[in-house]
Amino acid sequence: MEYKMIDTKQGKLRGSAANGAVSWKGVPYARPPVGELRFRVAQPAEAWNGVRDALTFGPICPQPQSEDTSLFGSGMAEMSEDCLYLNIWAPEDDVTGLPVMVWIHGGAFMSGSSSIPLYDGAQLAFRGNCIVVSINYRLGPLGFLHLSPLGEEFDSNTGLSDQVLALKWIRENIGAFGGNPDNVTVFGESAGSMSIAALLAMPSAKGLFHKAVMQSGGSQYLAPAQAEGVAAAYLRYLGVDGGSLDRLKSASVQELLSAAAALMQGAEGGSPGLPFQPTLEPSTLPVDPVQAVSEGSAAGIPLIIGTNRDEGAFFLRDESQRMDPEAFAGMLHRLTGLDNAEEWINRYPSSIEGQAGMMTDLYFWRSALIFAEAQSAHAPVWMYRFDWSLSNHPFFGKAVHAAEIPFVFGNLVLLPRMGVRIEPAMQNLSDAMRSAWQEFAKSGEPSTAALPWERYEAENRITMIFGTEILSVQDLEREKRERLFGLNV
């Protein structure tokens, strides 16, 4: 194994080179958020003496076992509260001033990590001549429990504070790895994309990144009263009352996870789907992200935003998951905030396919359109939809949630383990998406010589379709958009 040394502000790191890229894994960007630092805003990492090996991924945030990580062949990594680590990939040749791409993983704010093989950044770094960074952040109750009302020993949105601190670490250190701290692009999927929506609205994140890519996730937050209800229910499951708040710091990780599971099962205090998510809170996220962005909080930050054609089919796969109309309307109300969600029920078939389609349209596409509209008044925006699917495949049979990720990362090599034969058309699609994302990170425009891509503007509403064919469509599904969202969205 060939090693490569880098000096950071905290100390020396030893990384490893392979297949044209160098990686540094398990790099601490914060102090371990344990003991008295549990449920507190992340604090900068401390220095170390000597050389620190950065050859393996760090632990991931404690979470339930996730089928989605094993889906792409990762298995479960070591879990620990001491989880605030990031990973860096760079081209093997010594270079300077490269664009930086920072990946924020998804997982409903409850699961996931930066070490899933699907997120390996070697191909992006090597083929795109850029620096790729992926980060862990706190999840579930550790990262998204609204506790600041309990007093100065507790903070809210700690998972978002982790992301902000990681971006600060990148700004201070990425030059040593060949990156340009003044050309940083954040990109993320699902909860990672929703995190980016929050970062675009957060005063503490201003200036830490310069472009954004939001894949399958728009603005998502809890109002303070909702978040306080979730926290109160969680504390009851944990057995905490007003006189025993110290138990929040002393309870075992397993007790914290068990209380979270009980909360999810009981669906008390707010959305059963996403009880742990960003909360509107004065010191961290003071304003609804859509409102903040529409008022110019992210002025000058170019944006790529999009969805997959069949997002909802990832969550609603068979008849056993079909809900009665009242329950489904309630779920949509909690997820989207729509007061009239039940009015849309009759517009879709009552089948599982109808409910999946409704989730795709109302939860994913609608939120992307609203966010694109808000930001397009202040910066260039590009819209896409991912349409590729593989007939009769158990996962890729539709263009479901997360299906675009191996194409963006250039990691199609992982797909044969899922029974997918890689065809030239798939590689061409991956090259087109990867190149567009990387050109955007480099220049702020996703157009390439092979694929011109017009901006999304109110006059034309251009959407790039990434499917078996790649084509640009004006005002995609206009009649549906007008029926669902009105003429002004």
UniProtKB/TrEMBL annotation:
Keywords: Disulfide bond, Hydrolase
Domain Carboxylesterase type B: 4-471
EC number, UniProt record: 3.1.1.-
Pfam family, one: COesterase
PANTHER family, sorted: ACETYLCHOLINESTERASE, CARBOXYLIC ESTER HYDROLASE
Family: Belongs to the type-B carboxylesterase/lipase family.
Protein name: Carboxylic ester hydrolase
Species: Saccharibacillus kuerlensis
Gene from which the chain derives: pnbA
